[in-house]
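Input record, target 12 of the design panel.
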């Protein structure tokens, strides 16, 4: 493929002209470009194309890659480079429907879609899809006028807001002819691949409905297999959570870390939930999750992933030897509310149902736990309580001491005196004359 063809494909795939139009309309001077790992090799070409279209404007760009959750907006690194806005390339979990501290433009790599043929049924057809088919669906929506076919919309791509709309995983449907009911609606999903986490999430939520997924080989919708095994796994983990005495709350999502109000609301609810059930918990900030890291906390019997990302791969981790549950799983474990008949990992959907409690947002001090507390989106403060003896530990060097064992004062060596170190580089430190 020659260079001209490559440039044309880059302009189309990465929507260069649309990005330039958005940059000029908002008069941005510093932007961050977030690429998925598979497309980092194109980042230099994309940057070159953007700069060629912005010849009369001086705009500084930063390239962000190797993110923990590629589908989430890496707002932490955006803050590091002091960018005014972010352009997100590739698939998104659409967790950005939560309030964002800066403007975000999405390039979903739009894909074509043939005319859809729906199975004959008296039910309404509720159609959901991955963001890369949003333009193709808009075209079909204008061409087809069947009342029984209802297409959803991607929230980040539309400015229309309706208080009566039904929103799930960043997709909304307004003006439903009837309330959602499995006897009145069938669910159809168009996924970019069979392993799409969005497809799995929607299937779990609508597990009592007739659910169809689009088959690109046969060009038709196939009845999706039952999710009973997946639901049984979640129910098993919920039962494990009921029997657990010590929990670890993991704050992990790169997008949630910038939502301080959301974090405080979640932690406020979970704190009250644990206190009512006399449970012990630790709050941990872990940018990069790993099994080896979490196994270091031997006293923790169950982890709760506090994340805005509904497509976190850790929910599907099979090698993890400690139960890992969602906020909704924990809600089901201790709540007597049986009104939720649909399994959801949508944080925005969950927050609408969680009870809120009035408490001081500056302090999260428990009389029964040692906590790592998030007082600022990117800072941790450690608090301890002397009354909580079973999990009180101290270290002297490499030796672990507890309330039962202590280090003899005579054996304690004095701490080395701190002195001002060298500055500069090895080729020539600042204090060296030559």
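The sequence produced for target 12 reads:
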């Amino acid at each position: 493929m020659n260079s001209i063809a490559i440039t044309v494909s880059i302009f189309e795939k990465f929507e260069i002209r649309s990005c330039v139009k958005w940059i000029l309309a908002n008069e941005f001077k510093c932007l961050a470009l977030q690429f998925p790992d598979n497309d980092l090799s194109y980042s230099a070409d994309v940057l070159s194309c953007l700069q060629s279209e912005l010849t009369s404007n001086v705009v500084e760009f930063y390239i962000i890659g190797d993110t923990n959750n590629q589908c989430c907006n890496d707002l932490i690194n955006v803050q590091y480079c002091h960018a005014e806005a972010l352009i997100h390339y590739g698939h998104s979990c659409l967790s950005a429907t939560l309030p964002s501290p800066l403007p975000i433009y999405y390039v979903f790599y739009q894909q074509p879609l043939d005319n859809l043929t729906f199975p004959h049924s008296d039910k309404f057809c509720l159609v959901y899809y991955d963001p890369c088919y949003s333009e193709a669906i808009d075209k079909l929506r204008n061409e087809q006028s069947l009342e029984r076919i209802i297409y959803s919309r991607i929230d980040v791509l539309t400015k229309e807001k309706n208080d009566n709309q039904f929103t799930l995983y960043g997709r909304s449907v307004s003006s439903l002819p009837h309330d959602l009911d499995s006897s009145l609606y069938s669910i159809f999903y168009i996924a970019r691949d069979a392993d799409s986490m969005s497809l799995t999430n929607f299937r779990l939520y609508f597990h009592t409905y007739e659910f169809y997924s689009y088959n690109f080989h046969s060009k038709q919708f196939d009845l999706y297999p039952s999710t009973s095994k997946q639901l049984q796994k979640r129910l098993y983990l919920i039962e494990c959570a009921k029997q657990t005495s010590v929990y670890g709350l993991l704050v992990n999502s790169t997008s949630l870390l910038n939502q301080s109000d959301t974090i405080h609301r979640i932690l406020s609810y979970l704190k009250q939930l644990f206190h009512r059930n006399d449970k012990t918990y630790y709050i941990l900030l872990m940018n990069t999750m790993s099994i080896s890291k979490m196994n270091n906390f031997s006293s923790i019997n169950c982890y709760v992933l506090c994340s805005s990302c509904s497509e976190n791969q850790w929910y599907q981790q099979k090698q993890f030897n400690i139960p890992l549950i969602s906020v909704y799983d924990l809600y089901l474990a201790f709540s007597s509310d049986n009104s939720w008949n649909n399994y959801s990992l949508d944080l925005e959907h969950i927050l609408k149902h969680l009870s809120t409690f009035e408490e001081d947002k500056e302090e999260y001090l428990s009389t029964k736990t040692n906590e790592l507390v998030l007082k600022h989106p990117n800072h941790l403060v450690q608090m301890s309580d002397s009354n909580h003896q079973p999990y009180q530990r101290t270290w002297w060097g490499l030796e672990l001491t507890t309330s039962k064992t202590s280090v003899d004062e005579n054996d304690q060596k004095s701490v080395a005196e701190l002195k001002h170190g060298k500055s500069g580089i090895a080729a020539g430190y600042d204090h060296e004359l030559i």
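The chain has three domains: 3-107, 124-226, 230-383.
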